[in-house]
Write a structure and sequence with these properties.
heterotrimer; A: 4 strands; C: mainly alpha; ABC transporter involved in vitamin B12 uptake, BtuC; two-stranded antiparallel sheet; disordered C terminus
Chain lengths: ~290, ~375, ~375
Amino acid sequence: MKLLETLLNGLSSGSTYAMIALGYTMVYGIAKMLNFAHGDVIMVGGYTLYVSAVMMGIHPLLALLLAIICCAVLGVTIEKLAYKPLRGASPLAVLITAIGMSYLLQSVAQMIFGSADRMVRLFDLGRITVGSMQISTYTIITLACSAVIMAGLSLFVKYTRIGRAMIAVSEDKDAAQLMGINVNFIITITFAIGSALAAFAGFFMVLKSPPVNSTLGAMPGIKAFTAAVIGGIGSIPGAMLGGILMGIVESFAQTNPVIAPFTVAIEFSILIVILLVRPSGILGKKRREKV
Amino acid sequence: MKKFLAILMAALMVAAMFAGCGNKAGSTANNTEYVIGVSGPLTGGAAVYGLAVQNAAQMAVDEINAAGGLNGTNFKLIATDDQHDPTKVATNYANLMNQGMQVSLGTVTTAPGEEFKTLAKEDNVFFLTPSASGDKIPEFDNGFQMCFADGNQGKVAADYVNGAGLTKIGVCYRSDDPYSDGIYKQFKENLNKSIEVVETSFTDATSTDFSTQISQLKECTFIFMPIYYQPAAVFMEQAKDIIKADATYYGCDGFDGLAGQLDLTTIPQEVSMLSHFDATAKEGKAAEFVKKYTEKYGADTLNQFGASAYDCIYAIYGAMKELIDAGEEITPKTSASDLCDMLKGKFTGGYTLAAGATGSNIKWNADGTVDKGAVKYNLK
Amino acid sequence: MSKLKNIKWKQYIVYLVLVAVACYFGVFGLQQNLNRSTTILLEKAAVAMILAVSLNLVVGFLGELSLGHAGFMCVGAYLGAKTALALTAAMGPGNELLVLVICLLVGGVAAAACGVIIGLPALRLRGDYLAIVTLAFGEIVRSLFENLPDEMFGGSLGQQSVRYDRYQLFIIGFVLVILTLAVLQNLIRSKHGRAVTSIRDSEIAARACGINVTKYKLLVFTVSAFFAGIAGVLFSFTQNKVQPTTFDYNYSIEILVMVVLGGMGSLNGSLIAAVLITYLNEELQIVLTGDLAVLRGLLYALVMILLIIYRNAPALKGFREKWNMKRFIDRMRKHDPAKIHDDEAKWDRVPTKIMVDEVLSVDIQTSSPYTPDKRKKEED
């Protein structure tokens, strides 16, 4: 029984990780860059919820919509301002700019909202009793929502024009361009979708624990990226798998008082081991290096 | 190009030199007021404590000055920002000494305090910290605490649990925090071995999601939480339907500020804490402090750190006044070291602060720890 | 005399500046007549310079991003402090310098061992993957030291360390900076250094030229980690306690900011940037208090983004070539770029950039050698 509960807890936090990891993996697959600022987009989403739902008193679901729009716009802006000028430059330069961007967002947020926590309480979700077990509604909602979002995303990528264009760009940017695909537009769309997913993740994180501060997204962001790498970066099912694996490992590690303090170390060790054994991740495709 | 770089570098070095050479220790020769220094987190995650100390200490200083100071001489408070980072303390300390610090409130938090105590020992500077509760903070003869030491809090909490007739308790502590870790280790040591303990912990990186810990603890009716109020608030909110409604959360002084973080009436469980300060006090010095503080700075940063700092200023003021009355010569130009020797003798020699916001008849032990009553408050 | 004339003084001017600074302050230091904040600044600058220069080896010359530099430093600091405590207890007072030297070696070697461990995955990974592995490594190391039993490394309270005499430590620090610089410069100027930079510019081309990429990557990681460990030991001697929170991800980023600001692939630049940022940190800590403190983070973020975009954006290439510092200085010196001097080989910045992508278009399969038989089988 306890095992099942731990598993459910892991699944619910894992699905949040998976949602963040999706954003990473999509951007990485298409723009071939690690968007370090992705975690901080979550934080911006959290603050948007704070401003709209708490300060202005808008209905939480409308606030979520607003947060999604804000984050999507922010994601696209970051891409246009910081990453686009560097397209074609060395990957190292792009990576450092992304780290700088992450810092910039955190500093600006701290400047506007200060360093104290802001409390964002949206809904009071109750609990559902199944047999002898109590499951929090939150867990179910998170799981259901993330399943729907992931399925939708997979379908979108597989069956729509834009989605197929995304696959084409991720396979070969130049060839895609020759085939008449507007690569810039596809990258913009990818950033918008990834950031919208970050807003969703922010919503679920705030739903679970109300304090929002400027480092809200930093650690989940890094963990989610780890999850994306474990699952195989560039692969949508891989991100889901990695995220959920991460959540489950985390929740099981925390049940043992001796190894609980080492939770983070264990998670990162798994990353290193997986990369050593299978550098492309569990579900990732092996890429040939071309000159 | 290389030459240019080198010249630039040399220029930088020269610029750095301007701070340059001079007397090594701080000088009190230019002081016209008694200078009290403190280093605390005025920005960053722990800012609420540093600001509380700064505000309350400033309030006490203003009050004393308004009442004519110490025999006509005013006090001056200098607060520096260490962001709860031990590596920033040395700079702050040097800066305070350069500004003529004579006596100090040490640091607000424990981790930077570990650095501060040795620096202060080297120059023999007296410090009375309002809230750095680490056991080793008053390690040297010049360091004193106004708050209870962590070990002491753990012991008092364990005594309480031993006497309460419980057979099974739960614990949730933060393993990467010296405060939480320190209290819990002492607690475990002093706890009756017959009591079964369900131990859970978390780290800074996992402090927003307590679902695993909560499901571990849900059978317990008594949960000891030696943690700060922010994670405690998150824990309680996530646990309110899972943990039994008649359970008790028992925290230490870190719980202080909880009421500002969440609406306690929505939590069915009992919340109590071991503390020296009651923010809901209706009478006495504590109530007076709460009223004055909220009028001046609002309730956002009202907590026991501030109350403790307020008492620290009055304790130092009182001790200096008694020393002067006894014929000692203390002026703003008295060196920190001389003043330290006098105050050390005073504080270990049975000096008593009759009434403060954090208790009455406050005395100090020879090892620098405070001797006053701890009270268990029911927050709800 | 003629020999002296042949020496290219330009190349050694950095060393001269460093020696001059160390001597200048050393004289005051040995007389114990130095401002406390100056000694702190000098110590911190020495640590920062070693860190920045050693990170530059990985980032600027190997072209891989390491986000775990603070992790290597952490290993050095902890082991250095532990060794220092044990040795001081065993050897008694009077042997401080010997203890320091032994600790430097122990810390450096331990960190270098970690460098080998982290270098092994580096052989298989590149770019973003490697960055995230180094980041993970940094977090693992910190979390291990923080959570291992208190008897081993002091747990969350931190490891007690031995404070070296503050009026002499910075001299040793500057000696270490000079040693680090000498080793790294000679490494980079050697054929090994050229091999390393060729890996940066095109790993596949380097492989094709018969360069053992594996060996050189491992070498660079080990050397860089060794010096980070040295910096860690030096740091531990500036503190009374080594606390795990110091070595977080933000610290690695701060070192990276130094490298970026100074210019990737320029050791002198790293030195200047390290001094500048340390100096700014110290000054801003005092000046910017309250909510203003965040401006520092904002400044670093902007510097990082704008500098990288300016230096690397393909669209700005023409602009860069027209408006760079070198050209400006050349114009001031009325230098004619068309006139080529005798072997003015750049010894700190090796230009090996060849547009390999345009030259070759061969499909090489790395890490698995071409075996016709195997492929045939697979097709069947």
